[in-house]
Amino acid sequence: MTPDTTPAELEQALTDAAEAAAPLAASAPAERAGWIRAVADALDAAADELVPIGMRETSLPEARLRGEVARSSGQLRMFAEVLEEGSLLEVVIDTADPNAKPVPRPDLRRVLVPLGPVLVFAASNFPFAFSVCGGDTASALAAGCPVVVKAHPGHPELSVKTAEVMMEALRTAGAPAGTFGLIQGYDVGVNALKDPRITAAGFTGSVPAGKALHEIAVTRPEPIPFYGELGSLNPVFVTQAAIDARGKDIASGYVASYTLGVGQFCTKPGLLFLPAGHGLQEQLVEATGGVAAATMLNERIAEGFASGLDRLRKVDGLRVWSEGGGATLLQTTVPELLARSDEILEECFGPVSIVVEYASVDELVAGVEAFGGNLTATLHAEAEPDAELAARLLPLLTARAGRVLWNGWPTGVAVSWAQHHGGPFPSTVGSIHTSVGVTAARRFQRPVAYQDTPDAVLPAVLQDKNPAGISRRVNGTITTAEVSR
What's the pTM? Predict the structure, then answer.
């Protein structure tokens, strides 16, 4: 058993992070990119050591974990490329204009700067991609922030080994001491969150834990941003035209999605809305019954799933269509859901999902309107016959989700420029930000504008000659050229 971090060790980790903040913030984008790329290379090189530990601690299969290592190193390299290109800094330069109306305009130069030390609460369900070397860590490092990770108790040995690989890579590459650190223990994480040296925090976990930590973050003497991903039902809505066109594919795809990773994805589709008379019950039941039993991440999650499933079985209006083996499928109707929405629309983390049948378009709309915030919402429809219905539903889905899918499945989150992995509460406590993709770094940056500042004392990325050759918006135009006045 890995011991909790001692008070003295926590103090050292926070001191080191605070001391690293200034040199990290002052580092050139290309230099920072080199440090991040070194971590990516080290993770790939250590995969043969790390993956077996992950398999032992989480019961996840080798292929899944190796894929996560590649995802983690890939997003680190993506951030390195963006740093070198310059977009991550969002440099905007408006040169002085004495003829501007109604008053002359001063020379203004704006850039994003790092907040300072960031505390990351690692997730259980992705022991690489959302844990010690995950997206929160990668985006904070890219922003120029030292990172202190609070390890998840579900994979403590893997957390320690991963941290060792990352710290050695950063040290060898020349990053400031204290750029990255690891702490263990629930109370240790709370104490770190309260420490004034921490300037922002990221969290992935349950709604109760996330709300409690968010309360601490925003009620400190100096409140800080807290970016929590808490819970999501990820509803899927299917039209009759979609059933007619590809009903069998929808049935098989839905079961594959909600049971992927033993139903332990934050994007697992928790409810599937089908038109009455859809004729897919037999297929859905057969596909669900064919799912093999598998071990969940840890005993605590397994106990939580068993308790949640037992609660759902007792809800009036929910009927069991299939259970046993590796998954459970329940069924209800829109009127029954609306009558018991508090009970039915409560996330159960694991391989269970609910089919909800609607008798009319008005019932379908009512089903959409029953939801609060979600990471995703999916519509399966056909463009031609469903154009009018889609035009009615998409704004409703947009109001409730951070990612709206058309004829797809929400499990699987591409790491890219355009990705948004977030959504209205309770899916997150910061719906304007994403935890995946390039703009995830924006959570750990703030803008500063320099007015009429001599070129020689400006940060290099704002100087006329653009010595780093990065992308900048100068007088409204994106360019890498020298500023002309």
Answer: 0.94
